[in-house]
Amino acid sequence: MIPKSGNRFSDKIMREEKMTKLRYFAWVRERIGKPEEDVELPANVGTVAELMTWLAARGEEYAHAFENPKVIRTAIDRTHVKPDAAIKSAGEIAFFPPMTGG
Questions:
Q1: Where are the domains positioned within the chain?
Q2: Does the domain made of 22-85 have the CATH classification 3.10.20?
Q3: Most buried pick, 27, 52, 61, 71, via CB within 10 A?
Q4: DSSP 24-93
Q5: Dist. CA 18–CA 10, nearest whole Å
Q6: pLDDT under 70 in the chain at which residues?
Q7: What is the pTM of this model?
Q8: What is the spatial distance between Cα 40 and Cα 38, in angstroms, rounded to a whole number?
């Protein structure tokens, strides 16, 4: 059953359903200044590449973190994806720099 809009509880549930958790790792986290956040994705952002462009426009710290999006790796719901991957139903999107072995 879908809650009807009009009361605070159902409105909150409907808003939370649109939220996506973004997680940032290593130097991406350091540049942004936080490990994670919940965001409502804009309707015009449909792929990982579009999300990185949108994030880069959110402020200086995001612009610095996403200044070279080709080096950033992304996972949607813990599965590695390419920049053209759709993010429509993602619960969690993680960004991290390439990792090296050692």
A1: 22-85
A2: yes
A3: 52
A4: E-HHHHHHHT-SEEEEEPPTT--BHHHHHHHHHTT-HHHHHHTSSGGG-EEEETTEEE-TT-B-TT-SEE
A5: 13
A6: 1-17, 100-102
A7: 0.80
A8: 7
